[in-house]
Fold this protein.
Amino acid sequence: MIDAKGFEEWLTENTNFSKRVVGNTVCRMRRVDRIQDWDEDEHYLYNLEKNDEFLELTVSVKSQCRRAVRLYTAYAKAISALAK
């Protein structure tokens, strides 16, 4: 399960995205999390792209989801670094 609230705050503080883009990115990550439970495995995106439900999405939505996963991965790494 993702930390949507923390991710939203991190995007707001660490990117120049508008509120709408931040909201859409969080929404895409929630969608991805419903397709395949989030884990910090380095092969997460690879495994996601093999998922039948993900493959049924449009090219545009898949691209947006991949971007959300990359951003969430950066967020997760930043949180892990702070915890150390």
